[in-house]
Amino acid sequence: MNQETKFMLKRLAFYAFIFTVVAWIVIPIIISTLYGFALPKDYYDPKKVIPTSFTIKYVKTLLFTLGALDGIKNSVIVALITIAISFAFGIPAGYAVAKFIFPGKDTIKLSIVALRMFPIPVMAIPLVILYIKLNLIDTLLGVALAHTAMALPFVVLITSSIFAGVSTELEEAGMVFGLTRLGSFFRITLPLALPGLAAAAMFTFVMSWNEVFVASILTLSHRTLPAQILSIMAGASGGAAPDYYKFAAAFIMILPAITFIFFARKYLVTMWGITLK
Amino acid sequence: MVEVRLENLKKYFDKGRVKAVDGVNLTIKDGEFLVLLGPSGCGKTTTLRMIAGLETPTGGKIWFGERDVTYLPPKDRNISMVFQSYAVWPHMTVYDNIAFPLKIKKYPKDEIDKRVKWAAELLQIEELLDRYPAQLSGGQRQRVAVARAIVVEPDVLLMDEPLSNLDAKLRVTMRAEIKKLQTKLKVTTIYVTHDQVEAMTMGDRIAVMNKGKLLQVGPPTEVYLKPNSIFVATFIGAPEMNLLEVSVKEKDDSIILEGEGFEIPLSRDFKELLERYIDKTVVFGIRPEHMTIEGISSLEHVKRSTTIEGTVDFIEALGTDTIVHANIGSGQIIKVKLPGHIPLEVGSKVKIVIDLDNIHVFDKDTEKAII
Amino acid sequence: MKVKSSYIPYLLILPAFAYLLFFVGYPLVQALYTAFTQNGQFSLATVRKTFADPYFWEALKYTIALAGVIVPTQVGLALILALAVNRAFKGKDLTIYVLTIPLTISDVAAGLIWYSMLSPSGFLNKLLLKIGLINQPIYFFGYQYRHMEFLAIVLAELWRATSIVFVIILAGLQMISNEYLEAAEVFGADYWTRLRKIVIPLLKPSIQSALIIRTLFAMQIFGIVWILAGRDIPILAGEGFYRLTELKEYDVASIYALVIAGLSLLLGALYIKFMKAEYLEVRR
């Protein structure tokens, strides 16, 4: 076997490997989506590996009769509030970390990362008692406040590296030509940081959208989508709903997340590289 | 200890549109210190990487002695390399860094220890052996990189601009040290740089490259005194050689170069060379250090000379030398380099003496040297 | 200009920092109080109650077992993937994007998706039936098939969470300067030697980060188990959830929460202790 054939075989093996991996990721998503739209008779037919007749009936029932639409509405509201509050607190902190030198900076950075590591159940379970006292139990605001706590460290770290990426000289030029520091921030730094901030917002949205434990504990009637789905579908042996509802639910849950990340995909690996430092 | 031969070496990128290295033929003698000199993008680093095996040639061959190494991977070529950013592995101590090539080649432990200490001593870094790279200065890291490169006895030693990241003073010291080291070890060395001072002081021979092509190869004095093209003439030597457009004319049975407002008589020996250029334009070149100013200083060993009149336009006082910018008419400025401090004033009229044994004439279109 | 300013940076950071401190500090204190006091006095009664419940020990066992199987496998897989992907090839960007899709999928959705793969009428069973490899569907769910449920959870988690490790390791891989590898190549090291002696040691910080992050999250595993196995496979977060929402036993739930926190702290500290990269610690 000469050099060329060896080389070709290696390439073939490599691409086969890549293909397998991609298929491993993508096939389950495709399958569950297909099954979500399939007619029960196709699903239960052992001879039909891939369903051929489709319906949107179950997605519809899920949305309207079983309350998934409300769940979606609630999730969106919670996510938006989370973004608003976490950005309101996080952006100033991120800017400070990026542009100032001050004693204790490293400790603060480290503790912010450490706080992110804090296990969520430990935060959520005692929070119930507090929320009951404050009348925040079973409110969307309550969930959003908890989500903000989870998202803040991420927002602070990401915005700090985004702002660090905006050359300080550009801000200084703004100040030389008449802007105050605050003015320079709003008219120069912020617009330049916008793409990165948009990506951060999308990630925060997805994080809140997907969060299930806290949302399930803190709400009863105003459930977010994951909390709702969990209560309907939980427990394979005692699951209340027939299988195809499960798949329809999966489809509804993953659709927004996948679309969002498609737009923010360039930032993914760079963001993790940044947080690592 | 090996002779390296490059045969019509080519490296093309982007489906042949970018010709990084375009047909280089070069033989580097056994034990020679050869400098590949050229501006950025000229192909010298790509050539070096092909010799290392880090790039595969698009065409041509590379020989190490009798071995055709063109397609051999680096590890089979018995080479060593000093990288521009040193590439000293941060997770290993200095000792382990230097020992690495020996460990890979499975030398016995006591032999490794002996050699590492020998290399460290040569580079004066014995006390640093158990430190990590993060604890060293740039200059120290560079010495580690060199120690690592010499610890195995390579057939060929390659260096890719190793001094460019050092500050000026350190660069001067290291230049001498590396050259002394190479003379002592007698290993065939190929050294890439864009700094012509480095090339002139270190190389046994200099190979000047531009745009993927090898322009001239020769010992430093030869490349300096007899450049074969405008590019080589202006790349070597600082300040740059003065270039003026002149016409070749016949006058009284000899040839002269006629410029705007001046004339340069040439010896009869050049008549043949310039015959076909009569009444045509050529490029006349003279180095700043091959001229002087009448009354200020004299070139003792100058046998034949001629004078041009000019007005002082600007003076650069460098301390050890002075560079006088003189306007010789119609806005043409030539630079004259004189030793010491020159008490001239801007605007004064001067007579510039040109050493006729060191003039150059280039073909205007091909840019090749005629004289 | 990095301004050496007096109080402005502190002012800017204060809201975020205080917010976080509250949402971490208060619950922690509240949990400790609820778990260790009865009628205002320090008491271990709750602790005893929790420990007496066999479900607690099952949950502890399964949480650790799941983590022990999933986390190392994920790190290994992610390492292979990152190394494979870190070169130029056609479709590289698309591949990386696809490999990061699971990052966006919640654990509940992942559980549901894998249900579609492994249910009695799911894709895997139908495929194998069609090819003729089996005559009867393989049952992954149901109390009597608990070991299969365990497998299903492992598969689903591998599918979902390997991406996180992959991204971390890939980022770390990209930070390794190519010159380090070229130097090793020049000095005689072949691919596997370069991998062992240069790449892996330089990846140690990334691998350590990934292990810590994944293990900590594995201690909190919830949605995916709840969907695929319900209480057939008890886990710490799940039992805490159940105690809180169904039985309203705040104190017992707090104990579960604290156990999770304690385990996380312990494992985190162990990782940091045993995976120190000495070359990063030294200073000039």
Automatic annotation (TrEMBL), chain A:
Membrane topology: Multi-pass membrane protein
Gene3D superfamilies: MetI-like
Residue spans crossing the bilayer: 12-38, 76-98, 110-132, 144-167, 188-209, 244-264
Xref: InterPro entries: BP-dep_ABC_trans_perm (IPR050901), MetI-like (IPR000515), MetI-like_sf (IPR035906)
Subcellular locations according to the entry: Cell membrane
Main location: membrane
Gene Ontology CC terms: plasma membrane
Biological processes per GO annotation: transmembrane transport
Superkingdom of origin: Archaea
Residue ranges occupied by any ABC transmembrane type-1 domain in the UniProt entry: 72-264
PROSITE patterns in the cross-refs: ABC_TM1
Similarity comment text for this entry: Belongs to the binding-protein-dependent transport system permease family.
Name of the protein: Sugar ABC transporter permease
Species classification: Archaea, Methanobacteriati, Methanobacteriota, Thermococci, Thermococcales
